Amino acid sequence: MDEERQRLLRQLPDVDHLLQRPVLQAWQERTSRQAVRDAVRSVLDERRRAILAGQWDQPFSRDAFDQAVVRRLQAETAGHLRRVINATGTVLHTNLGRAVFSPELAGHIAGLACHYSNLEYDLASGKRGSRYDHVRELLCELTGAEDAIVVNNNAAAVLLTLASLVPGREVVVSRGELVEIGGSFRIPDVIEQSGGHIREVGTTNKTHLADYERVIGEKTAALMKVHTSNYRIIGFTESVPVSEVANLAHEYGLPCIQDAGSGLFVDLERLGLPHEPTVCEILEAGCDIVTFSGDKLLGGPQAGIIAGKAAYLYAMKHHPLLRALRVDKMTLAGLEGTLQAYRDGTAIRQVPTLRCLAQTETAIRKRVETLWQVLDVDSLPARISLRQVDDCVGGGACPDTVLPGWALAIEADDLTPEELERRLRHADIPIIARVQYNSVILSLRTIGDDEFQDVARIVREVLGI
Ligand SMILES: *Cc1c(COP(=O)(O)O)cnc(C)c1O
Fold this sequence. Notes:
This protein is an alpha/beta fold and about 475 residues long. It has three domains: about 5-80, no CATH class; about 85-95 and about 355-460, Aspartate Aminotransferase, domain 1; about 105-345, Type I PLP-dependent aspartate aminotransferase-like (Major domain) (Aspartate Aminotransferase, domain 2, 3-Layer(aba) Sandwich), CATH 3.40.640. The protein has helices at about 5-10, 15-20, 20-30, 35-50, 60-75, 105-115, 135-145, 155-165, 185-195, 210-215, 240-250, 280-285, 310-315, 320-325, 330-345, 345-350, 350-360, 360-375, 415-425, 450-460; strands at about 85, 90, 120, 125-130, 145-150, 170-175, 180, 185, 195-200, 220-225, 255-260, 290-295, 305-310, 380-395, 405-410, 430, 435, 440-445. It has a seven-stranded mixed beta sheet with strand order 5-13-12-11-10-6-9, sandwiched between helices. It has a five-stranded mixed beta sheet with strand order 2-14-15-18-17. Strands 1-16 form a two-stranded parallel ribbon. Strand 7 and strand 8 form a beta hairpin. Helix 4 (about 35-50) crosses helix 5 and helix 6 (about 105-115) runs antiparallel to helix 15. The longest helix is centred in the first third of the chain and has 20 residues, at about 35-50. Bound molecules: pyridoxal-5'-phosphate (PLP). Pyridoxal-5'-phosphate (PLP) binds near residues 153, 154, 179, 226 and 293.
């Protein structure tokens, strides 16, 4: 063995010495002496092997060594459900947890989670209160509805709506709107589950008002519209606007229900996207009950919201399913905070989902250049280029809308793109990226500015720097 390697090996301190380091002492209090000792040992062993193999020629640095041990401890204590960096460019990625919260909102939720709250306590009277009251007024103000209920997700909202209104009777739905959402949520199945029967009308591409009217009879319980969130039928098509379905329903004394998919409180055109009806517009059109998700375009927590006529919601509030579908205080805290941003007119600035969607191509181009600089690409064993990409909304919303974005395309000198993608996914903070045209694509739209340092560090690490 040459002298240089021997010198590097001699520089490595012993385990007990390293355990005295203040950062590692703090970790011993949080975990255990044994856990930190094991982590120090394994990082030391790795370093020793790298020196012997001639792969390490840096002098020993205490700070860098501490950081390596801390990252090892963080990875070991991280748990199964972990934070990831979304480099897919899909804003509402259902596999990656859909909408994210702002740090302020997360702080508010954490504050409530760590303390008792007035979840079901009326502070004014000192008596029992209802968990649904905390967001009811905000929802009514924002949607113009008479009443509102919050349940676990939109699937639950649809189920509760139908279970309380249609058992033993028929729900009329257009054949063009028999939607399946990922995870086997199918409108016909939900209707059957609720105890009702589906009455399909029209054809896949065309449904007329007369098709609805023809089947209305003694057994009809409701007319239902379903937002075709995740697909488009194009060409020779026709569907009946909700206002006409609602008018027809009212002529026969029936409710008109709409599953709106994403709950929208702002006009998407303000974000540069094609118009989609807002919850307010759907109710104004005469619809009696609208259901929508909390964590799609609304940008809040996973929740399902039912908004509409008080008389219909009364039945839902007294249905036994409500208890089974009820939401936790953290969901309500997240929803209230999100709704307040809409009420205050600050949602586009404060709700991360909207902010992410609203980014212009020029703004993303600037950000990709910043990340390029942080990465110091000339020093990397890879070809890295800036590339224009098509990002998407995701979450089964706006399926044919392309969001123009920018990405870093990485082609490593010695790794296949699949291997590079795998290594990024196995990093201490996993980076979820896609492989396209022999490169790994890191789309900037969904990467936060506060994540640049981590992305740069991880990319350097996985490329072996
Ligand atoms: C997404 C969606 C659902 C399901 O909503 P979850 O909140 O995911 O349960 C139901 N209906 C439509 C039309 C949707 O787009």
